[in-house]
Amino acid sequence: SGTYTIAEPLFVEDNVTVALADDALVQRGSTFDLTGIEIATGAAPTIRGGQFDGFQTTVDAGGTTSNWTLQNLTLSVGETGVGVNAANASGDWVVANTTVGGAGLAGVAAEGATGDWTVRDSTFLDRTTAIRATETTGNWSVDDIDATGVGENALDATAASGDWTVRGLTAESGVDAFGATGDWVVEDTTVD
After folding, report:
1. Are 57 and 34 spatial neighbours (Cβ–Cβ below 8 Å)?
2. Cα separation of 156 and 178, whole Å?
3. Could you tell me if 34 and 12 are in contact, meaning their C-beta atoms sit under 8 angstroms apart?
4. Under 8 Å CB-to-CB from 32, ≥6 apart: which residues?
C-alpha cells in the first residue's frame, strides 16, 4: 500500500510478475513522461494490482509480440488518453478484472492487433470507446464487460477480420462491426 510518484515509465523487459497491493496508488510525477508502464516488445510479464492515476497511457504494450497479462488494475486516465495501448500487438495477451475510467480515446486500444487476445471481467467508465479493435485479424474474445458509462461505442470492431467473440457485454452503446468479416459472434449482450 502507499502512494508512489514516478517521473518516468516503469519499463518491464522480462517475463516477471509485478504485484502491487490493490490500494497502492501510482501517480505521474512528470509533465513529460505520460506513460505509466511500458512493456518491452518480447516481454511476457504479469502485472497485478494497484491504482494508476493521471497517465496519458497507463500501460503501453503497443507492437508487443508476447503473451503478457494485466490483472486487478484500476486505471484513471487523462481525458485524451488510453488505459491500455495494445495497438499492433501480435501476442495472445489478457486484460482481466480491470477498471478503466476517464480514457478519452479508448479503455483498451487494440487496433491492428493480430493475436488471439482476451479482455474479460472488466469495467469501463465514461468517455468514448471501451475497447477499440478496429482492423484486427485475430480470434479474440471480450467476455463479461460492464461498459454502461461509455458514450460512443462499447466495442469498435470496424473492419475486423478474425473470428472474434463478444459474450456478456452490458452497455449503453453497442458494438460497431461495420465492414467486419469472419465468423464473429455477439451473444448474451445487453444494450440499454
Report:
1. yes
2. 9
3. no
4. none
Distance CA(89)–CA(113), nearest Å, equals 5
Write down the pTM of the prediction: 0.95
| Cell 487476445, located at residue | 117
Element (H, E) at 48: strand 46-48
Per-residue pLDDT tens digits for 99-146: 999 888 899 999 999 999 999 999 998 677 999 999 999 999 999 999
Q: What Å distances lie between residue 55 and 58, 112, 168, CA to CA?
A: 5, 23, 29
Residues 6+ apart with CB under 8 A from 1: 21, 23, 24
- The dihedral region occupied by 2, where left means phi > 0, alpha psi between -120 and 50, and beta the remainder, is left
Q: How far apart are CA 153 and CA 150, in angstroms?
A: 7
